[in-house]
Amino acid sequence: MKRILPLISLVFITACTSNAPPERRAHQLPDLTPLPSMRAFSTAPNLPSTRPNSQIAQDFLDLSFEMESGRQIERFTRFEGPITLHTVGRVSGVFQNDLRALLSRLQNEAGITITQVSAETDASINIELIPRTQLQSLVPQAACFVVPRVTSWNQYRRARNSSTTDWTTLTQRETVAIFIPNDVSPQEMRDCLHEELAQALGPLNDLYRLPDSVFNDDNFHTVLTGFDMLMLRATYDSELSNGMTRSEVAARISNILARLNPNGVVNTVDTRADTPRAWKTEIEAALSPGTGALRRVNAARRAIDIARAQNWNNTRLAFSLFAYARIIAPTDSNAALAALIEAREIYNTEPATDTQSAHVLNHLALYALSAGDDTLAIQLSDAAIPIARRHQQAALLATLLLIKSEALQQMGQNASARAIQLDSLAWARYGFGTEAEINARLGAISSLRLEPIPAGG
Question: Buried (b) or exposed (e) across 51-71, using 16+ Cβ within 10 A?
Fold first, then answer.
């Protein structure tokens, strides 16, 4: 199940805006009608796994034999034989293109062939697109989710409180249903498609320790990475079969990875500690929109304390700091900025966390723009823009381009600013979807740099 985590948040923008001197006011927004045509990514990302197989083997076992809730899975399961897929509901051309690209990647990178069939034909994997309000009427915190042994939303409604939809009771995967909202941005639909289809096929767990995977509730990665494809390729390796126990899979996984990922064969020992339940509880409370503001702040602080007590200097400490910065930005921008800087220092320690670093750079660029340092805002944006492109994160890319455009405009480079703004808006149509949301983002960023009130104004 994928939970909503708005990494590109207007909270930060509002917090920066609140620091502007009161004697200044926002300039008028440019005419954005009509918006430029939507842009979308056409080539698959090339993001191979770079970590040693000793780590990856442990990750495979923990992803495959445990649920996100902590419940143990006794038996290994996967699909056997031909896998088919169909879609039901309002399917846009953009979504179909994203689905086609993903199925191609699964074939080429994970060795899994999935045949798309018509909506009227029975399928192994049933993707149903429904309104978000309908989806969240039963699972309020979910952006999208996947369940076994049902083929439709109506079946799920009837079976959701029974053992039918319990993954831990499976001995083999035969039928699953994926539910995705049809009234969100194209990027959010694509992100749901990647994560839920991957879980339909393979690992059911999420691990906060993973720096390079969609199987992580921090939701920094939104399209399947090289690590994720390796997990799926290993899942369908001929040495494994349905019904195996954890110990039986553990006896084989090292040899499988050595064959599939020879670059990962290095003499290292996996010394990463498990993530304690206490840290997960605090980070989930900090990120929950339904939790009170003070409780969220305190939870984020406790998550940082737990991370430091564990002597973590990795993604879990950095994510704790990032979450804390997002929460306190409206009330204490200096502390938020300090937390962001520390998070970036941690994320910069390894190449696998470049997308996390890009999200931090995005917020640091907003601060630079708010402070009037246009040159720094451009430098920070330029450092993050290629990363956002490489990881196919249109919402992040659009925001970074908007920041750069605003900085260039303030420097008097209006022609360059307008060209970059139009490029940003084309990506924003994919990343944010509606014109109202796009205008809100543009207006918020424009208001970071305020013009002096003319004499007598």
Answer: bbbbbbbbbbbbbbbbeeeee
Helix ranges restricted to H, 241-347? 246-260, 277-287, 293-309, 315-328, 333-347
SS3 annotation, 113-152: CEEECCCCCCCCEEEEEECHHHHHHHCCCEEEEEEECCCC
Write out the two tokens for 237: 């390796």
Of residues 171, 166, 174, 225, the one with CA closest to residue 195: 225
Query: Quick one: tokens of 45?
Result: 């990302």
Which residue has 């750079």 as its token pair? 361
Q: Which of 202, 236, 264 is the last residue of a domain?
A: 264
pTM above 0.70, yes or no: yes
CATH of residue 6's domain is 1.25.40.10
pLDDT at 455: 33
Question: Containing H/E element for 87?
Answer: strand 83-88
Could you tell me which of 341, 411, 427, 420 has the C-alpha nearest to residue 380?
341
Peptide bond preceding 22 in cis form (omega within 30 of 0): no
Q: Can you read off the two tokens belonging to residue 125?
A: 């994997």
Question: How far is the C-alpha of 317 from the C-alpha of 323, rounded, in Å?
Answer: 10
Residues 8 and 146 in one domain: no
Domain residues for the domain of 97 are: 53-264
The predicted-structure confidence for 95-124, as pLDDT tens digits, reads as follows 999 999 999 999 999 999 999 999 999 999
State the total domains in the chain. Answer: 2
* Predicted pLDDT of residue 246: 98
- 333 CB-near residues (< 8 Å, 6+ apart): 15, 16, 18, 19, 367
Domain-located, residue 138: yes
Q: Are residues 307 and 165 in the same domain?
A: no
pLDDT of residue 289: 80
Rounded to 5 degrees, φ, ψ at 114 are -125, 125
Q: Are residues 63 and 113 in the same domain?
A: yes
pLDDT value at residue 443? 82
Considering the domain architecture, whether residues 182 and 312 belong to the same structural domain is answered as: no
Which positions of the chain have pLDDT values less than 70? 1-33, 267, 269, 271, 449-457
The pLDDT value given to residue 456: 33
Angle at 195 between CA 194 and CA 199, to 5 degrees: 115
For 176, the 3-state DSSP assignment is strand
Pairing of strands 24-25, 176-181: unpaired
